[in-house]
Amino acid sequence: MSASPAKSDVNLPDLSAFWMPFTANRQFKSAPRLLVSAKGMYYTSHDGRRILDGTAGLWCVNAGHCRDEIVAAVQAQAAEMDFAPTFQMGHPKAFEAATKIAKHTPGDLKHIFFTNSGSEAVDTALKIALAYHRARGEGQRTRLIGRERGYHGVGFGGISVGGIAPNRKAFSGQLLPSVDHLPHTLNLRETAFSKGQPAWGAHLADELERLVTLHDASTIAAVIVEPVAGSTGVLIPPQGYLQRLREICDRHGILLIFDEVITGWGRLGAPFAANYFGVTPDLLTMAKGTNNAAAPLGAVAASRRVHDTIVDGAPAGIELFHGYTYSAHPVAVAAACATIDLYEREGLFERAAQMAPLFEEAIHKLRGERHVIDVRNLGLVGGVELQSREGAPGARAYEVFVRCYQKGVLTRYTGDILAFSPPLIVDEAQLGEIFSTVAQVLKEVE
Ligand SMILES: Cc1ncc(COP(=O)(O)O)c(C=O)c1O
């Protein structure tokens, strides 16, 4: 399908007041790209073009856009009860949504704490880790270990354990103390063009032993990693790496947190990456696909041990002094209930698993195209790394992103890496269109 021609008589709103997040505001406002409606696999742009969504919005619209059942649930909930507090009060949909989520979370991660975003879920998980050790009499375990290139949102906790340099730089004077980082796992010399999990790199998990020796286990509360690092440009964990992290954490009484804000809800063809890899963390964060991004929602799933230690171990009264006005907002959790029902009814995680080999084949066709120095993939997520232009890192991928958009395909870029994460309803023809458009654009850009 080729993109229809742009409408010339477009009325844009005044763009000056909205200070856009993670956006080059001046560049964007000089050549804006607005999306005005969405259905299934497609957006419609402000200039009237159909845009094939290669990124599920922002890694979040896993069931496809504006699904009737989710729209109806949001509308019904907004009309029935707009808001109810969950501090010392409750409403049925909050409990129902937690139960539905807990049906899919792995192991005994069956206690669900609601937040409004992935960033809040991360900061919540870090706080729960500290509270857990304190409740069991090891309050000196306060150190948090993240990983280079990790993205854990934008709260102070998240950017402290995160490892994306520009996200930390301006705030570097006030990051959390007592944080250390594992090395990231990307090494193009060893793993370029790997299909699925690279065979090389499990030994990088042993760096955790080095940090334990350096700091002493008795000071370390938790390790947090994305099972597949998404925002930094899709880094696939080496075979055996996550298993080894789990073993080392167990050996030293350190909690393992999986940040599944991207990998959760079917992205790898299983409910969570933890299910996919067969590694169960102690805490698991989610957001995005939890309710198909129909309203802001995040959550932390905690193991029985973590939950019971904090809740049963506390004196009478509030056990955890933490929460948000909008924790389990009725509209957000109503959307989650409808979304999870839809995932189950349509078997979308199984569908993602079935489509994964086709996705792999389609994305790896880009090997050999100009500028491409790596292609990597797992499930329905993939990254294509381009050679950076001399002295202008990120410029080439940005140009590819803009040109793909002009040709009717939404991609995402970070640095010089293009990222792909289509809704799980994507079909073979649409996969072909996404990657043939990228191939064409790669021939055009310098
Ligand atoms: C792994 C991970 N953690 C946390 C976040 C932050 O989520 P949010 O933007 O909803 O705060 C993201 C967002 O992309 C993410 O990918």
TrEMBL record:
Pfam families, per the entry: Aminotran_3
Record flagged with keyword Transferase: yes
Gene Ontology terms for molecular function: pyridoxal phosphate binding; transaminase activity
Keywords linked to the UniProt accession: Aminotransferase, Pyridoxal phosphate, Pyruvate, Transferase
Spans through the membrane: none
Family: Belongs to the class-III pyridoxal-phosphate-dependent aminotransferase family.
Protein name: Beta-alanine--pyruvate transaminase
Lineage summary: Bacteria, Pseudomonadati, Pseudomonadota, Betaproteobacteria, Burkholderiales
